[in-house]
From TrEMBL:
UniProt keywords, alphabetically: Amino-acid biosynthesis, Aminotransferase, Histidine biosynthesis, Pyridoxal phosphate, Transferase
Annotated metabolic or biological route of this protein: Amino-acid biosynthesis; L-histidine biosynthesis; L-histidine from 5-phospho-alpha-D-ribose 1-diphosphate: step 7/9
Name of the protein in its database record: Histidinol-phosphate aminotransferase
Gene3D superfamilies referenced in this protein's UniProt entry, alphabetically: Aspartate Aminotransferase, domain 1, Type I PLP-dependent aspartate aminotransferase-like (Major domain)
InterPro entries from the UniProt entry: Aminotransferase_I/II_large (IPR004839), HisP_aminotrans (IPR005861), HistidinolP_aminotransfase (IPR050106), PyrdxlP-dep_Trfase (IPR015424), PyrdxlP-dep_Trfase_major (IPR015421), PyrdxlP-dep_Trfase_small (IPR015422)
Cofactor dependence: pyridoxal 5'-phosphate
Reactions performed catalytically: L-histidinol phosphate + 2-oxoglutarate = 3-(imidazol-4-yl)-2-oxopropyl phosphate + L-glutamate
Amino acid sequence: MSDTSLVPVPRSGILDIDLYVPGGSKAAPGKKLHKLSSNETPLGPSPKAVEAFQATARKLELYPDGSATELRQAIAETHGLNIDRIICGNGSDELLHLVAECYLSPGDEAIYSEHGFLVYRISILAAGATPVVAKETAYTTDVDAILAAVTPRTRMVFLANPNNPTGTYIPMAEVRRLHAGLPGNVLLVLDAAYAEYVRRNDYESGVELVASAGNVVMTRTFSKIHGLAALRIGWLYGPKAVVDVLERVRGPFNLNAAAISAGAASMRDRAFVEAAAEHNSRWSAWLTAELGKIGLKVTPSVANFLLVHFPETGKTADAADKALLAEGVVVRKVGGYGLPNALRMTVGSEEACRRLVEVLTAFMKGAA
Ligand SMILES: *Cc1c(COP(=O)(O)O)cnc(C)c1O
């Protein structure tokens, strides 16, 4: 007879994980939905990606290519990279988890910044390691604070550049200074999910650093500018030795056939990506200016979303969120990121941007 006083126990740390809450997606009844809560593109996917996706419907009985060769080839050619140093994932989330699983053990520490992407904390805790938070300065990664947090137990640093939900970035010179200050046995994970949107001369996604260092990886996604979030496609570029380790642990068929085909087609459609970046630059600047005119503080963003700050009392972020929801505009609360007085808003279609400003203008003018 089994001993019922014994129960299965997860690895220590796992019960410290708060459930990740995705952005909302429901409009108020009778209102047109504008979903600005998950940084999805308003332009949809490339028509070439949709065509490739549909073609896969004819051979669903076959396992996909376990090496995602077609997709890795398209990435390697487009970005001028060595295909042997690219590994794909079921979204970049899977790759972030995989890196933590393979390189962190209980007792190890991993650092991320104060308002850094929440998936890092989840990955670190799931690996049984200890999350260490480095303070930010003006909602921006502070390299000195990260370096000051390094101890002999540190094994990993996660850096989203640009960061979500703040929209800020640090120049490549700062990333290099961070790397130079880390011991060689600390893996620097550069998450460049929004790289395609950034139009700054001093920004780089980190490709060159990965190419020249043994302890840096860069992750990218098809969920944002490529408009393929539903297919779950991410990729990682890293040292051959690191990629070999990740290859051992990943699921043998972690990308499905539709993702491989559509991802490859999208990667080769450079004009589509360029048009999406252009739309974003234009409407991000417009939104920032318009929200400023009605008295809202917007953290300068280089990505496809804005972090908008509200007063602590009166016209609060919670009240603004409710007012927007009532009009079908769904944005993201970021209290879970330590930002209870702010909301994160995706730069949507022209119609969505105008609606957002309309509703917030009425909200700011109304009685508190
Ligand atoms: C959206 C996002 C990702 C992408 O995640 P996927 O799993 O590829 O959809 C990764 N990192 C950051 C910071 C993000 O905001």
